[in-house]
Amino acid sequence: MLLTFIGNQACILGHKVLYANTTKLFAKLKMSKADGSYIKEIARIEKQDLLILDDFGIQPFDNQSRSSLMEIIEDRHGKRSTIITSQLPVVQWYEIIGENTIADAILDRIVHQAHRIELSGESMRKRTNKTISLLAETD
């Protein structure tokens, strides 16, 4: 919900925002390499004022996804904002990204001057689902 609020507020303020599920984004980028539209897709991502990568680390990165992530982060570093959400602590991102040298380069750019917000407690999705269930039962 916090992510939704930030993205929505950025849109209201006139910023270009791209929200993407990380796994789906990198699958799309793989397909774009196959059909020749990769450079266009990367340029589109680079132009966004705010990139929101949701569910980072659900799946480990393969070579192609790792390379695309490096390119995206390198293009945006110091120029545009990126928000990354993950269920995993940052120390586990090395393992998910793979290849320590590339992981170091990516994480150095991501973590440098980043604001980290760590949330704890019950998932808002669980709370929302319980509320919906309770409402459905009372009708």
Binned, the helix content reads 55-70%
CATH class: Alpha Beta
Order of helices and strands: HEHHEHEHHH
Counting helices, strands and paired strands, the structural category is mainly alpha
Q: Quick one: biggest sheet?
A: 3 strands, parallel
**Number of helical segments with 4 or more residues:** 7
- As for the CATH topology, it is Rossmann fold
Poorly predicted spans: 131-139
Distance between the termini: 26 Å
Which CATH-level-2 architecture?
A: 3-Layer(aba) Sandwich
Q: How many domains, in number, for the residues? A: 1
Radius of gyration: 17 Å
Structure in words:
- The chain is mostly helical.
- The chain is built from seven helices and three strands.
- β2 (50-54), α4 (63-76) and β3 form a beta-alpha-beta unit.
- The model is unreliable at 131-139 (pLDDT under 50).
What is the topology?
Elements: H1 2-12, E1 17-21, H2 22-35, H3 38-47, E2 50-54, H4 63-76, E3 81-84, H5 93-97, H6 100-111, H7 124-138
Parallel strand pairs: 1-2, 2-3
Helix pairs in contact: 2-3, 2-4, 4-6
